[in-house]
């Protein structure tokens, strides 16, 4: 198993935080701090901030994206947003299947799969979130749950599409709880996912897929995750909201354990 060819990706997920002004001033402040970053930096901003944040980030390496989308091209879906609207606003990627969407908005794997296909066809890079609940973990069903989420959300996309799709392993019990998974636990699940991908699309594709860990990531433990061979990045919620903690997380290698 080699992880040498994968450039790490650290994604901030701002959820329902930040006005346009706050988003733009954050991006402006982050640009000079990440010139020498060891990872690519993505930020999933609120819809209203996509265009201004993307404009602010345009001469930098920061990649701006969205946190959700609908699977339809367009139509009478009050309050929804289409992939084309996101790319039009400057989004380059989209988070799909976040556990808050699954839990609070009843999103199913089938729906997430349709969104994934749509995102790919519109040139938006998906970050597909998967993860087990505390109860499923207690019952020893973690791998079973991940397998089902992978199978049903990814479906039979092509190998080249799989290779550019980012996976985010986010145990539901770890999100926003202050109780992150142990780095070794994350590694075991990432390895499980990569192995599953290799069985379906082959080892070459599996070796290209970026697998992020998410769930209560703090700058102080970022390096412990990134040291794991199958952890290629982080999906960061709370710690992405201030410049200081996000910048420290991005520069994980310069922080101790
Ligand atoms: P958290 O959120 O880092 O605040 O736990 C992670 C996520 O929901 O993606």
Concise synopsis of the structure shown:
This protein is α/β, with parallel strands linked by helices and 257 residues long. It is built from twelve helices and eight strands. Helix 7 packs across helix 9 (183-201) and helix 11 packs parallel to helix 12.
Relevant terms:
alpha/beta; eight-stranded parallel β-barrel; about 260 residues; binds 2-phosphoglycolic acid; 8 strands
Explain this structure.
This protein is an alpha/beta fold and 257 residues long. 43% of the residues lie in helices and 14% in strands. It contains 12 helices and 8 strands. The protein has helices spanning 20-30, 50-57, 83-89, 99-104, 109-121, 134-138, 142-154, 159-164, 183-201, 203-208, 219-226, 243-250; strands spanning 9-13, 40-44, 63-66, 93-96, 125-130, 166-169, 211-214, 233-236. An 8-stranded parallel barrel has the order 1-2-3-4-5-6-7-8, surrounded by 6 helices. It binds 2-phosphoglycolic acid (PGA). 2-phosphoglycolic acid (PGA) is lined by residues 13, 170, 175-176, 214-217, 235-239.
């Amino acid at each position: 198993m080699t992880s040498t060819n994968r450039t790490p990706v650290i994604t901030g997920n701002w959820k329902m935080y930040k006005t346009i002004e706050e988003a733009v001033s954050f991006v402006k402040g982050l640009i000079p701090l990440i010139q020498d970053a060891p990872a690519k930096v993505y930020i999933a901003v609120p819809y209203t901030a996509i265009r201004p944040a993307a404009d602010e980030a345009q001469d930098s390496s920061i990649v701006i994206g969205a946190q959700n989308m609908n699977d339809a091209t367009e139509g009478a879906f009050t309050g929804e947003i289409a992939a084309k609207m996101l790319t039009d606003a400057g989004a380059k990627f989209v988070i799909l299947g976040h556990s808050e969407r699954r839990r609070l908005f009843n999103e199913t794997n089938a729906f997430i799969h349709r969104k994934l296909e749509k995102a790919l066809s519109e040139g938006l890079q998906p970050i597909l979130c998967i993860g087990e609940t505390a109860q499923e973990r207690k019952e020893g069903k973690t791998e079973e749950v991940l397998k089902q989420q992978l199978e049903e959300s990814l479906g039979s996309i092509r190998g080249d599409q799989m290779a550019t799709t980012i996976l985010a392993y986010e145990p539901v019990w770890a999100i926003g709880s202050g109780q992150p998974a142990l780095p070794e636990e994350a590694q075991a699940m990432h390895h499980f996912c990569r192995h599953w991908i290799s069985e379906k699309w082959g080892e070459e594709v599996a070796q290209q897929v970026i697998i992020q860990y998410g769930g209560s990531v703090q700058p102080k433990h970022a390096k412990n995750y990134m040291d794991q061979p199958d952890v290629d990045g982080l999906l960061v919620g709370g710690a992405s909201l201030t410049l200081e903690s996000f910048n420290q997380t991005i520069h994980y290698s310069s922080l101790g354990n």
